[in-house]
Design a protein that fits this description.
With about 120 residues, the protein is an alpha+beta fold. A 6-stranded mixed beta sheet has the order 2-1-6-5-4-3. The radius of gyration is 13 Å and the shape is globular.
Length: about 120
């Protein structure tokens, strides 16, 4: 699995166009997808797709401090920082090769601690 492809998919998931496209979300998210959001809420695939489809349009947030590393055959860990409107957050995602395509299996966001 190519690190550049994983990063591109992560960045795509931050866009309103993708967040409002149920078919594309279904292509990117693994059937067993789970997320622990910055709020601490736990999401499954169906819940996150439903929530994203209802989300208001917003500018795509800026990201930095990317690191994408293979951690096992066909498994990649991506970590990065998102500069949010109110507060920055760290993100970690596990991508797996599923049916020949990279799919997001797990994602977690955590607000950056105040200095």
């Amino acid at each position: 699995m190519d690190a550049a492809d994983v990063r591109a998919a992560e960045e795509e998931l931050l866009t309103s166009a993708t967040r409002h496209d149920a078919e594309r979300l279904a292509e990117l998210l693994h059937p067993d997808f789970e997320e622990v959001g910055r709020s601490g809420r736990r999401w499954n695939r169906a819940d996150i797709i439903a929530a994203l489809l209802q989300e208001s349009d917003r500018p795509t947030p800026r990201t930095d401090e990317w690191d994408v590393q293979g951690i096992a055959p066909d498994v990649v860990l991506a970590t990065f920082r998102v500069e949010g409107r109110e507060r920055a957050s760290w993100h970690a995602s596990i991508w797996v090769l599923f049916e020949g395509k990279p799919r997001l299996r797990y994602h977690q966001g955590t607000f950056v601690a105040d200095a």
